[in-house]
């Protein structure tokens, strides 16, 4: 049994975000070995964890997933063959440990015998007797029945329920649970692996299995050449992990890695959020999903080719169900069509994605999001993605022209209730944020100053701003003026607000 755990697995065991463990390692509270931590050092840092907490951690995970409206993940058991293989592996490890304990006991008895012999031959029998008592005492304490590191027990349970995947050369890792394929599990964890159809047809998700065991979960039409098979190539959308595995696969690191796509989606729902805002829910065909990075936009065409570029308001972890927020703009052909005529099941053409307003995933800093009115749409996508990545501290300031423009209050409340690391504040300025100059600009600056005065950690963080151009110009200048470098202030001007 391997006592060293990846940070993903360790974080899951104690129910905290990875970043909490990273901070403990940085400040020397926890020792790491090549980015891994031992079960013992994890327990030393989290001594209050009990085995029974597993149920609570699972419950909180499910609440989080529901709060983020993810593809609902029922905690199904893995496939029977997968379970059998994992139990067999654990049984082998247990048998090996038991055999070692037996050998250790035999060795210990031999040692006592040798000490007896030595004691009879020499005058030092008293000190040898003392030494024997000391050893027996120490061994009795170590072997005392009843104490078991609860994290070790929980880790064994997790190993039966979930396998770990490490992606090379990027070093990303994630867990495969239930009956997820490798691709589904990677997307759930916010890791943008290469893929196309998700259905075994295109071959774009081909990856090389470096170590570990996988199991095919479905037939695929794409034919893997003999040469690729010999190299260990598999399709991520058609296999699950049986044991912990290592894969060689490219991970999209920038917007240039995401191909331009044209997809005909269908309207799943058009739901009013308030009198002037709607939620447009599109569903792509099962075999042609939309690949995008959180925060990016897409061009939509409806009716007689009325088009608009809109930020995606959902997480890339659910690539079939793509959400948009749209404000009513009387006289705008696209807006009029969507508000007055668009029906369920109607076709909508999607083109894209576009835009570079994406998360700096490698940054260790806290995340501060500022959504101005409808700028909440791309911010929502970024926050959902950040939560998939198990990000640390996430702060949302929703700054609105009026109370109606905080158009999803229940959602942000649900996030606040479900997540300890999510902090939300709303601000209503009382003027139109699409037209900010003169006194309005002064008023907005004052509002931003108050926010920073209350929480000066913003200066050390990554700041993301989205909303109408006029408000963004003022806000961007404000944060740059505080000394934040341009690389830490990301701006997304949302046109249709
Ligand atoms: S994504 Fe197309 S074959 Fe896997």
Summary of the model, kept short:
By secondary structure, the chain is an alpha+beta fold. The protein is 37% helix and 24% strand. The strands form five sheets. It has a six-stranded antiparallel β-sheet, with helices on one face. It has a five-stranded mixed β-sheet with strand order 5-4-10-6-8.
Notes on the structure:
It is a single chain. This protein is of the alpha+beta class. Among the domains are: about 160-255, Roll (Ubiquitin-like (UB roll)), CATH 3.10.20.30; about 255-355, Beta Barrel (Elongation Factor Tu (Ef-tu), domain 3); about 365-495, Nucleotide-binding domain of ferredoxin-NADP reductase (FNR) module (Rossmann fold, 3-Layer(aba) Sandwich), CATH 3.40.50. It has 14 helices and 21 strands. It has a 6-stranded antiparallel sheet, covered by helices on one side. Helix 4 (about 55-65) packs antiparallel against helix 12. It is globular, with a radius of gyration of 28 Å. The two termini are about 55 Å apart. The mean pLDDT is about 85. The structure holds FE2/S2 (inorganic) cluster.
